[in-house]
User: Fold this.
Amino acid sequence: MTETQKQVRVDLRRDPSGEPVLHIDATFPVAGPYSLQLPTWRPGRYELGQFAQYICSMEGQLVDGTWEQLQKSDLHRWDIPAGVQRVRWAFHADILNAGSTCVMDDLLYVNPVNCMLYHPDGMDWNYQLSLTDIPSDWMIGTALPKVDGHFIARDVQHLMDSPFMASPKLWHAEYTSHGIPFHLWAYGQQTPEKNRFIADHQRFTDGQIDHFGSFPAPDYHFLYLFPEREVRHGVEHEDSTVIALGPSAKCLTNEGYDELIGIASHELYHAWNVKRIRPAEWMPYDFSRACPSRLGYIAEGVTTYMGDLFLFESGCIDLEQWCRLTEKLLMRHINNPGRLNMSVAESSYDTWLDGYQMGVPGRKGSIYVEGAVLALLCDVRIMQLTGSQYSLQTAMRILWEQYGQDRIGITAEDYWSVLNEVAGAPEALADLREKHAYGCEETWDELAAAMEWQGLKLTQSVDENGLKRVQLSPLKD
Assistant:
């Protein structure tokens, strides 16, 4: 914090009754009148979150020390009267997934973007967080730095992108890659086998940093939640990720473990792609309104493809396992008629309308699936044109160096220009862009040809229920 930077002091405590309520008491460095905003969405989930529905009360302390209920000026904003600096509110916190806030007997998990208010004109204010009722023997996992017993966020963007969890039952391990410390924190009755878990993280982390050439943060934290309920979810953050998989025993199965390590590789890739290589519409994040972008196929599609690819290239999985992952992806692709109705660019924009629900059948595609398919086609095209000297990852490294490091938001033109440059011609990928980013053309023949070029045979069949099946296998000599 600089000498002139203003600071918001925040105390957080659980409800003494044991109810799933988080009490937040904040003192702002202004005396009003002003307004306070609650975020309407969270990074990593491109839809409106309507978090204000979980606010149970909102009060301000008047000059005479009494508390007064505060009034809203819109659904997610409150008017603060003159003279009021201290505001307190209660947040109902009983949702446990990778993007939520949850209070339990043995867990405090907070995603600040769900529940923290900010002054719209104080985006550069520093935040000091104090967990006032957490016992001294509880462990706390977070990427937030700790100074004199308090956690410090340098500004609002940092605050909203820095989750934390506290529990007496946290499992913790650490490894180092390229001189960067990486932390694993895990809550749950069951956690993965430690040595294997650390070794796989080491492999895909080393691989990703090798390809990007540098890492964006001084350290990084994987926060794992293994609850006794059904959940599969991961959310990227600036210097950390939260990953939830449950019931906890699932992480001990081969299938569950493979899911877990796949999510982890995906989320780490986001440390570069989305947290730094970010669409201009999200640079910086505007939490007060919907912020649609047509570049979701880059944000999530490229990350989905690269996350799995790095598992293979780093030795976490073999070729057969990569083929099985890709079969699942392609089955989702060919069985969704929405991909032939709305382009992946427009589907990116419209996540803000119907979120991540199925919505109207056949209306739109998935930015994860269709974006990954497009990324695969782009990757193979670049390798074909350059004799495998360069790839899509070459382009992503250039985007990191030219845009991500300096936090310059990218446009579609920036992205495709870099890909074409790497491929060696101004219009090298123009057809893929028009047909599969902005268009809705069938991809099957191009996918089969791309796989064949890599020594794989792609076939399709229909089962007794009419579901299209995909098989991917090495070509026979």
About this structure: The domain at 171-268 is CATH 1.10.390.10 (Neutral Protease; domain 2). The mean pLDDT is 96. The radius of gyration is 23 Å.
